[in-house]
Amino acid sequence: MPPSMSSIVRSLWIAAFFALLPVSVLAATSGFYNNKTITFIIGSAAGGGYDTYSRLLASHLGRHLEGGPTVVAQNMPGAGSIRAANYLYNVARKDGTAIGMLDEAIYLNQILGTPELKIDATKFNWIGRILANSAVLFARRGASVQKIEDVFTKELIVSTSGTASKLNWTVLKNTLGMKFTLISGYPGTNEGLLAMTRGEVDALSMPWSILRLREQRRIRDGEIHLLLQTGADKDADLQHIPRMIDLARNDDERKLLELFASPSLIGRSVVAPPGMPPERVAELRRAFMATMQDPRFLDDVRRAQLEISPLTGEELQAAVVRSGNFPPALIERARRAADLAGN
Description:
Layout: H1 5-20, H2 23-28, E1 37-42, H3 49-61, E2 70-75, H4 82-90, E3 98-101, H5 106-111, E4 125-131, E5 135-140, E6 156-159, H6 163-176, E7 180-183, H7 189-197, E8 203-207, H8 208-214, H9 216-220, E9 224-229, H10 251-261, H11 263-266, E10 268-272, H12 278-292, H13 295-303, E11 311-312, H14 313-323, H15 328-337
Parallel strand pairs: 1-2, 1-3, 6-7
Antiparallel strand pairs: 3-10, 4-10, 4-11, 5-8, 5-9
Helix pairs in contact: 6-10, 10-15
């Protein structure tokens, strides 16, 4: 039977009602993520740079996904993000409801054969990068070391809460004979800074984008001294501060130090488990880049005095695959330099 006049009118009224709704309202009531929660795993303790960027992203990402899901940040520290990496790779749901941010050295750890790490980083779905990271090693005014060359003759006690920093200073100690004493008992950057203020350690490293704003007064007043950049590229603001790579005395040492500088490309990046539906990966990547251009997100970035240098998920995925192309002989030498040869 043909539809009654009343049913036709009702259908037209409903269609007209939805046509007048804003797109954002429609997105919040449809799609895979409707009535779902995304767990955002943070592979470090609360308070540091990873935590800051993760929580900032988590507070905005849901608005750019169909269905408007809630995104809940959850810290999962342990073994330099290895615990969180293993969870995301092997345990977390592979439907797009679990994503995370891991230590930038997670792929370097895999290349070096860290036995506790049970992942293949090239098979993670890389969603996007918020910030490339060139960390800076800095020392308190009262330390005996005031420039990086001093570490060849004087002890420098360094807090190493992150995997990348521990690897860097271990390699410089073993390869170049630098007199680093590494303290890994502090769970995060905040605790390391407090330890430095109390004189328990002499130095630690932080991303320059955070350090230059967070510790602006202490840098200006000479309370801390910048010693070394860890990234592959020099920061435009720090042309007078040497890179770790610049300490190499020959080509072999340079290639070795370039390997340990490679995590700066990953920086603060978002990953999702392997084996996800391609359309879900594409949706998350689109939402990530939309967030990077969202005026509300950018306002929060400015208010927090942070910086971003976004990279798309597709570009990041390709870069991660390329960055693992190192000769076996170099990797074996790197393992010895990082005290991993016996593992």
